[in-house]
Specification:
4 copies of one chain form a homotetramer. By secondary structure, the first copy, chain A, is of the alpha/beta class. The first copy, chain A, contains 12 helices and 14 strands.
Chain lengths: ~350, ~350, ~350, ~350
């Protein structure tokens, strides 16, 4: 029997229907998802963990009191309802295809693939199997970001004219990661491409992107940039500007602003806490959260709650195949725009 | 093996020393503490739960997979390091005395007693047994409030001159609760009396209190007030103003401000999230958290982390016998001041 | 023809009816009022200035191109509609009486007198003459403070329960000023007593005040305090807390908060401007305005605009005889409460 | 003798050296400048006004008590030190040339011309005459915006990486104005182009601009757009994003953000005042200032103070010939980029 939410949800209504999840991939993000599923999400249970390197799964399995299975065993287990694909990006498509063929519901970390044809192969397999599918764009579930999307959907801002997204990481990844990342547009800005589609609810038709190396020359030597500005043109005329940096020394800077005919909606950065001081010289408040889990933990909780609700109640995926495919497509177009110094239409792809 | 903190603490240093806690009292606050201990605090394990009405413990025991013991069994269990006294106020002193005599470390919900002589009996028993003791003034562990106390302790505000505390609940308790609560000053303002001592680090020597019935006439009929203003005079000359209401319709309003010779430090209210909108007429942001756990959950986590650290490392209690005794003493003085319409010196008690 | 407001009001409707003002007293506050009347307030013209020491009026008269008159000449001048009494406090009553007898409308700086019988003499003369009278409680006209009063009057906060006023000066006055000031409650807190009556729209019936010397021992040697906390009890049950300091090193700290059954309204401190920075360590914004004119210039403009409107349109004074009398009465009661260590009823006076 | 600043500057140091200004052009902006010079800027005196339609100058001349001259008389007047060119844009170059040849110091409203060759003609005349020249980019003198520029210049943000500028007007101009405006990039965004150069202190080398008609179809029929997003690439690698709208229904939205290797500096929107309310449903604060003078009056004051200081003390112009020329050049490049759908290098011009 699950112990999650104890203490503050105990009185909250009838018990949720249980869905059992197997996590594939026990790196940092896989361990986090496994821990959340095991301990915090009403209605979800962690059934097992797997990793291509089985030993990598031992510690998390022990600490969460679940078995380590091989990937094949996990996909074949009849008491597992859904798999969470948290392995390295280059393994996503094969795992999604296998999971779809095994009839499992699928949660897949972003991106499905850096290659659009590969994404299409995964999409086709999921569609053929008719299994539930959700991609891990957790920022959709951040309460502040979601409030901006809701203000647009509820027409509080009227017709959307301009969307501004700022997304800056507190510290750059190691240069060796950059080499396999697919580049900043497919690795980092892809979150913002998804956010633009999610908030605007209008497809992106053209991309113009610029990038520079300002943070770490080794990122440039690895063939990538660490600072980027992107302009998206949407089907309905909305224009989105996105600015990114691999290093904001003051913390994890994540903002969304939707401007339209009736006003604007903003998701600002939360402070670490609400304490501040004022002296002769200055009024001082907190810097921003630094660690991605300090900033986005609630979004991961809400993401899993949304996945549970989707599994139990059906309906449209909270972040479905279109989100999986289009975010990669925009990322590829942005990369091409950056390389060729011109706006790139999505139709070119 | 415990599963708490999984996913985001897995890599964080050597495993903490384990301490096992038995929770006595399975009402709302006891269930919350049991849940936190079981699922979220590295180094603490929930060993068992007990309640004067044993059936009241069944649900929480089952959901958290721990046994229900009688209070006597719990106090006698050799593998239980500490007890959390979460039962009704009138049972606190006997339980603290019994736990002390059993050699258990003690966490006791506030207040120890509404009667100063009874508090003194508990204090004497704890001192005689030499066991660790901590009282549940969770607000000391709120990151914002703690930042004010730290700014005073670190002399960022220089000499403290004025302390302002606002503490307003989102909704009044039922009138029948008011009857057994000891009155607003001992039930609600006691948190602020403790906060004043904690931030100022100077004893209160005189109290002047006023109260009115503005929220619910039934509270007046029950012999209490629902709106109060209190002025504390500290030994070092600091003056504290406290204002309280049983009903702030906009949410749980909890603020602390320390003003001194070099500046001020403030703990403001956090918003529910950092989203907002701006239209032709108004700029609109979130109201305040409503539920006490939305506002203070982090303080409870930090409180248990502090208790664990105190059990493992010793040193001064994070909220010791003096906090337990003086908060009740100030509450009694405030009640007397309110009833007699005059300032009351603590020496009178 | 007046040159004021040129450039940004030129197109704004029909020209206002002109009223001509004579300013008596050319110290700092008199010079400021003369300058505002001369240059910034549509509908007002500065007619002349006077001072008990005529040479003190020369510089301001020259710079504003108006004649210096004796006080007698100014009161007798047929083309002067109103006088502004800006001389030292001990001369106010005689000047108000003389101006009333001369049939002039009167603007009088606060306080009318430190002595209630003297205030009553002025009140009687004004009432006998039937001339317009306004006392210079400029903070009533601060846009933020006024928005709090409006929120109470419009019942946005429902029934008012608690009022909190913070009023802290950036730097203490010279000790020699303290000697003639009437003490902190009649000199400084009197603004807040008026604010409490203005916002609450309910008379004060009882006062409890405490004071300490924390800022400058010479203020104590002069028989006064520099730090004070006051609790007001209003006729309708509203309770007001006021905290004051002669020295807030971070600037001029002026806040009002009205809490009631439906919510709260706050007048916060404006920053000097809306620029801020965020670095690795801290988020830094502006300290507060320091000089009283930086903080309250707009209130003085609005005050004179309100006086003009009152002269032209009649109706109730924006700050009338009751404000003049009751603020002094509360100040005397607060001083007595502080000295005798007990709550003092206004009925005692 | 001037009466400006009276009341609050009377004691402030030795009198400033006087410079006498003649204003040419008595439309809205010319009247505002005339009024400020006459009434508010220490050291400046309004000497005369002129307008191509002399009757247009009568009202402002009368209200400010200065003579109306013909433009020729004004340029020939020996007691006029400087002229303010506030007439329609198409007259700027001829007037600047004539004023330079007359040896007058020149303040010229932006833009000097919509045509770069014409700007160059004005630049050459000013350089040949060696007269002081300043262009009216008032936003450089806004205290918040200036604080961002200072933070960059003082290296508080380290190396500048990304600059974000938002500039949205509260209401669109009449469509007939749009026809003669030169288009949004030369009429409105030109302020932001100047801001980008001013804050970054690095020349713009390439521009990419997109625009749409979202606010008023008549603006589209007039051949212009009302919503625009522009990306600037600077010589030092800094990237600037600018977003503009002709209609922000919530007020005048003007923000600048500089992000760099050591942090960020922001100029946020000031609220109308610091009052706010909080009820069951919402926390409500002020919308933004609406009228450009409510938002930017202080910048105009500071602009004239800077002009006075430049006239008296010499040194580099606070907004010189390079600002005049480059802002037009960037505006032309942006217009071409928007029309041709491609990034445009400044070298093309």
């Amino acid at each position: 029997m699950s112990n999650k939410g104890a203490g503050f949800d105990i009185d909250a209504g009838p018990p949720p229907q249980i869905r059992r999840i197997g996590v594939i991939g026990c790196g940092r993000i896989g361990r986090m998802h496994a821990g959340l599923i095991a301990a915090e999400i009403p209605g979800l249970e962690l059934a097992a963990v797997a990793d291509a390197v089985p030993a990598a799964a031992d510690q998390v399995a022990e600490s969460l009191s679940v078995p380590v299975l091989t990937i094949e065993e996990l996909l074949a287990a009849p008491d597992i309802d859904a798999v969470a694909v948290c392995s390295s990006t280059d393994t996503h498509v094969d795992l999604v295809v296998a999971a779809a063929q095994a009839g499992k519901a699928i949660f897949c970390e972003k991106p499905v693939s850096l290659d659009l044809a590969q994404v299409d192969r995964a999409v086709a397999a999921v569609q053929a199997a008719g299994v539930p599918f959700m991609i891990g764009f957790n920022r959709r579930f951040d309460p502040g970001h979601k409030s901006v999307r809701d203000a647009v959907a509820d027409r509080v801002v009227g017709d959307l004219h301009i969307l501004r997204i700022t997304s800056r990481d507190p510290a750059p990844p190691p240069p060796e990661y950059v080499t396999v990342s697919g580049g900043i547009f497919l690795d980092m800005v892809i979150h913002d491409f998804d956010m633009a589609r999610y908030v605007a609810a209008s497809e992106v038709v053209e991309v113009y992107a610029r990038g520079t190396v300002r943070v770490d020359p080794r990122i440039g030597e690895a063939g990538d940039v660490d600072t980027a500005v992107t302009l998206l043109f949407h089907e309905d005329g909305t224009m989105t500007t996105i600015d990114n940096s691999r290093e904001a020394v003051y913390g994890f800077d994540q903002r969304v602003e939707a401007f339209g005919s009736e006003g604007m909606a903003v998701s600002d950065n939360p402070a670490r806490h609400a304490g501040w001081t004022r002296t002769r010289e200055v009024t001082s408040s907190q810097p921003l959260p630094w660690f991605f889990l300090e900033r986005y933990l609630e979004s991961y909780r809400q993401e899993w709650a949304a996945f549970h609700s989707y599994l139990v109640s059906g309906g449209e995926s909270p972040a479905g195949l279109d989100a999986a495919r289009q975010s990669t497509a925009i990322g590829i177009a942005a990369t091409r725009s950056f390389r060729e110094g011109r706006p790139v239409s999505l139709k070119e792809l």
